[in-house]
Design a protein that fits this description.
Elements (H helix, E strand, L loop, with lengths): L2 H9 L1 H4 L24 E4 L5 E6 L5 E8 L13 H9 L10 H8 L3 E6 L4 E8 L3 H13 L7 H20 L6 H9 L14 H5 L3 H11 L5 E7 L3 H12 L22 E7 L6 E8 L7 H12 L5 H9 L7 E6 L4 E8 L6 H18 L3 H17 L4 H15 L5 H9 L3 H12 L5 E7 L11 E2 L50 E4 L5 E6 L5 E9 L12 H8 L9 H10 L3 E6 L3 E9 L3 H13 L5 H18 L3 H14 L21 H8 L8 E6 L3 H8 L26 E5 L5 E11 L6 H12 L5 H9 L3 E8 L6 E10 L3 H13 L1 H4 L2 H14 L7 H13 L6 H11 L2 H11 L6 E6 L1 H8 L6 E4 L7
Parallel strand pairs: 2-6, 7-11, 7-12, 14-18, 19-23, 19-24
Antiparallel strand pairs: 1-2, 3-5, 3-6, 4-5, 8-10, 8-11, 9-10, 13-14, 15-17, 15-18, 16-17, 20-22, 20-23, 21-22
Length: 945
């Protein structure tokens, strides 16, 4: 359940709020004199459930979201984390749905599902092909109204372990993971609903009982305390009848008292420090209490945050990053929730930086803002960027559903987006200065100094130590061993309707988007898809090379070049280029991938020509600014140092080194290492730049633009010239590491990161699709055996997956998971046996399941502009025809059981796999040796100890 992601999606103010005065077309006009609106119809069932319907026939898919008005702000001290825990429990069983179906069946129908909890609410959501629409109403309504009788002691204990693993992964085993807890405890007084974190405390979770679950359900999960939204390829009148059938008998539940705004006021500043076991860099945060969501002052505060740090002209960016060179960046944002808000200033400093110096620089930047005031040009830029963001925020049916349901539940208006757009557009310079003076200037704050362990000298002087409860890892804990247990015994709740599983509807016909192709005179091929749902265009210029063109011993050159190309042009300073892009409401970025160099972006259709003119300037007129290069190199060093704190990054980096060997470019990250970037100079970047060539380059475009309009604009890139470049051939390792187990010590880890894999084949190989198909049952999402066993059955992990990476170069097959530390050996044994027996255990029913799942998933595979862009990228990179998706489907349908077994036996032999564990050596090294494989210890850089 994506706690942080959902919180951002649902609680960000102007980006994700919505309003309409009545019904209208969903593809809003971009003209300033027309309101942005979302078409919807709202009605209320007799039990009090409010329902919002949005019709969108652009794709044969439907999104359903149920939002409950209960988050962690309804909990009590001693029972924290319960709203999120209950969300997990809700995904287990219900009266009329088979055990485990919620997590397993939806992916098998070609759909996706998830949920999220934040301070103020909980949401459950699915996107499915149209034919599974009524099935989703069946599952969703059963989870909502008919799950409480199925809760068992075994299910309760199993889900406790899953949530505890989630906390270990997101908080305990992550750098800066405890910062939110420290801030909440000190910003909000005891008893305030925001005094604790959403995920809560492990002792509170461990103490949860079935009676607690039932009490929580009875109090907060009545129909009156929720909203339901259905968006997509539906018929309004038919859907009303189905909603009444499936949701109409859910009990209304008691009235839930509305929470009133509870902003806080600090009587003094609070400065706290914390030594972080995982952090490699010092970080400073300042949090100032502000106002709640839907308050009109949210909008000028959002603009203020952008003015302070959101551009190269911003005063805090100038002082902290450019002048003082204390940090690679600084972020400032207004975060409003239902009853209170926070203005956050955050900077992760360069290694060894004294945070007192950083605090002084922040103060200097704020004083500069007070002196300079608000530029009308900056206001214009921010509003242009927000216009584009507004359209991007409703570009999929799920995003529309989120907006409609959140604003209905928390503001009583499902289409608040119209008002939000007006409020944002009306913000003036005077408004910004007013909220700065009212809420920020000279106001008290909570400040945290999080420093690497053993570097207390970097913390703010006179800061007090923050107290955090930290779990002790113990090897054998009886209550952590859980299992499926027996099903609950109960009498089914009576219903007027037959609540058994409904049949599939009419099978939606998959149809690939129509692709047009052309080329321009310098050799660039152009692939495009026209789509007019929103007035946006996304584009990507792909130039072969990327990391493959890096210089040996100076890996990271291409990545640094991509960063430098965005730091101004021959005729524009970095700030001027940023402003020019911002005034168009566009985004442009450059990056170097493993095999390609990319210039990507998005813009309003009306600004496509002007945006491509800037792309041309960036591509053909680099500034080669030594000052900016030095800053970027320092920022990269800081970033690379920071990654040394992340066990998952450590594992990925080392696994690539083990799999590809020392002579292959992919054995080193594309961003380089601290050693490889040391001697890189601007001249190295210039040498790399000369290798960029249009000869095999491709331009991809998707959005509300015709072939003629796009081609005419793209042809302005004809001035881009260069010779045809032959990519260097890569050398694979001559010595096999198959069968070895490598261990990397990260002392105190609450979890062990497990990666298992081997090189298999290139995406151009004739067996690539078949291998992808064959992996689906093993590790393809929540319905895969890895996830079902390690998380659902055993409670060892938050997630477990396997995948095959697409690239022209030979690619690895990888299994990856993070398990609680004291379940490392047991997890390894399960995975080892699962891979070893995969071919033998693969059955005809698995063939049919794979076929059904993947065929139906294609109905939602190309909904967004980004997905359409990925489709044409695949066509150009792998020389695939425009109907390659249909060809893939035919290949899938023709696969037999023997074909699957042959692929598995050829590519997924367990004895050929390399094993890697990143975890706590003191408690786990002795354990993993019991697996019976040769064990080799490595340091965090992959060097043998």
């Amino acid at each position: 359940m994506r706690l942080s992601t959902i919180a951002i999606i649902l609680c960000s103010s102007f980006f994700l709020s919505c309003k309409t005065e009545g019904n209208s077309k969903s593809n809003a006009s971009s003209k300033a004199d027309k309101e942005f609106k979302i078409d919807y119809e709202k009605f209320t069932l007799s039990n009090g459930l409010e329902v919002i319907l949005h019709e969108d026939h652009s794709d044969p898919i439907v999104a359903v979201a149920t939002m409950m008005h209960v988050g962690s702000n309804r909990e009590k001290p001693g029972k924290t984390g319960f709203a999120h825990f209950f969300e997990h429990m809700s995904f287990n069983d219900s009266e009329n749905v088979p055990v485990g179906a919620n997590r397993k069946m939806i992916p098998e129908w070609g759909g996706s599902r998830n949920g999220g909890t934040w301070s103020d609410g909980t949401v459950y959501y699915e996107v499915v092909p149209k034919d599974a629409f009524e099935k989703i109403l069946w599952i969703d309504s059963d989870r909502y109204g008919y799950m409480i009788n199925t809760v068992t002691k075994a299910a309760l204990e199993r889900e406790k372990q899953v949530v505890k693993n989630e906390k270990r992964q997101r908080v305990d085993n992550a750098p800066y993971g405890y910062t939110d807890e420290i801030i909440r405890k000190n910003l909000y007084p005891e008893g305030h609903p925001y005094n604790w974190t959403v995920i809560g405390a492990l002792p509170d979770l461990q103490a949860a009982t079935i009676d607690d679950v039932k009490e929580f359900y009875a109090k907060y999960y009545g129909a009156k305390n929720g909203s339901l939204v259905i968006a997509g390829d539906i018929n309004i009148e038919e859907t009303k009848k189905l909603v009444k059938k499936w949701f109409g008998e859910i009990p209304s539940g008691p009235d839930v008292e509305e929470l009133q705004p509870m902003p806080v006021t600090l009587t003094q500043n609070k400065s706290l420090y914390f030594e972080d076991n995982f952090a490699k860099l010092p970080e400073l945060r300042m949090v100032i209490p502000t106002i709640e969501e839907y308050n009109k002052d949210v909008y000028p505060l959002q603009v203020l945050s952008q003015l302070l740090s959101g551009s190269k002209k911003a005063p805090l960016y100038q002082v902290v990053v450019e002048e003082k060179k204390l940090a690679p960046n600084i972020s400032i944002y207004q975060r409003s929730s239902e009853i209170a808000g926070e203005f956050v200033i955050r900077a992760r400093a360069n290694a060894g930086t004294d945070l007192d110096d950083l605090k002084s620089a922040i103060d200097e930047g704020l004083k500069r803002f007070e002196s300079n005031g608000v530029s009308e040009q900056d206001l214009k830029r921010i509003k242009a960027e927000l216009e584009t963001g507004l359209y991007q925020s409703v570009s999929t049916v799920l995003n529309k559903a989120f907006k409609l349901v959140q604003d209905n539940e928390f503001n009583g208006d499902p289409s608040y987006i119209t008002k939000a757009a007006k409020l944002m557009n009306s913000v003036t310079a005077a408004d910004v200065m007013r909220v700065y003076n009212n809420y920020i200037k000279n106001k008290n704050y909570v400040m945290t100094s999080v420093v690497p362990k053993g570097q207390l000298e970097l913390a703010i002087a006179d800061a007090k130590e923050a107290k955090v409860w930290i779990e002790e890892v113990k090897q054998n804990v009886a209550n952590e061993e859980v299992g499926q247990g027996e099903e609950a015994k109960y009498e089914k709740t009576p219903s007027t309707y037959d609540r058994s599983e409904p049949a599939f509807g009419e099978l939606p016909l998959f149809k690939s988007p129509e692709v047009w192709t052309t080329s321009i005179n310098n050799g660039i091929k152009v692939y495009g898809i026209e789509n007019n749902e929103v007035p946006l265009v996304q584009f990507d210029l792909t130039i072969p090379g990327g990391h493959l063109l890096d210089f040996k011993g100076k890996e990271g050159v291409g990545s640094l070049l991509s960063d430098l190309m965005m730091e101004g042009t021959a005729s524009k300073t970095p700030a001027e280029l940023e402003e020019a892009i911002g005034l168009l409401g566009a985004s442009i970025s450059v990056y170097s991938a493993n095999e390609d160099f990319h210039i990507v972006g998005s813009c309003l259709t009306k600004n496509f020509k002007s945006t491509i003119a800037l792309v041309k300037e960036i591509l053909l007129e680099p500034r080669w600014d030594q000052k900016e290069f030095d800053r970027l190199k320092q920022a990269l060093e800081t970033s690379l140092k920071g990654r040394e704190a992340n066990p998952n990054v450590i594992a990925s980096t080392i696994m690539n080194k083990l799999i590809f060997g020392d002579k292959h470019m992919f054995s080193i990250p594309g961003s380089g290492t601290l050693n490889t970037i040391k001697t890189i100079t601007v001249d190295d970047l210039k040498s790399y730049y000369k290798k960029l060539s249009p000869k095999k380059a491709t331009f991809h475009v998707a959005g509300a633009i015709t072939e003629d309009e796009a081609s005419k604009t793209i042809s302005t890139l004809n001035d881009f010239n260069g010779i045809d470049i032959i990519l260097p051939k890569q050398e694979l390792p001559s010595e096999s590491k198959a069968g070895n187990l490598y261990f990397v010590d990260v002392p105190g880890s609450k979890q062990s990161v497990i990666m298992i894999g081997k090189l298999v084949l290139s995406a151009t190989d004739e067996n690539a699709n078949n291998l992808d198909f064959a992996n689906e049952i093993l590790g393809g999402g929540s319905s895969g055996r890895l996830f079902q066993t390690l998380r659902i059955e055993k409670g060892y992990t938050y997630g477990a997956y396997s995948s095959f990476r697409n690239s022209k170069e030979i690619s690895p097959f990888l299994v990856r998971t993070s398990v609680r530390a004291n379940a490392t050996l047991k997890s390894l044994e399960i995975i080892k046996n699962m891979i070893s027996n995969y071919s033998k255990d693969f059955t005809q029913s698995d063939v049919e399941l794979t076929r059904n799942k993947l065929l139906k998933a294609d109905t939602r595979a190309f909904e967004s502009l980004g997905a359409k862009l990925r489709m044409v990228r695949n066509m150009s990179k792998y020389n695939r025809p425009s109907n390659y998706t249909e060809m893939n489907q035919k290949e899938l349908v023709s696969m037999t059981l023997e074909d699957y077994k042959k692929i598995i036996d050829t590519y997924l032999q367990e004895k050929e796999m390399i094993y890697l564990i990143v975890g706590d050596k003191a408690s786990q090294l002795k354990e993993v040796k019991k697996l019976g494989k040769p064990v080799i210890e490595l340091d965090i850089y992959g060097n043998t100890i």
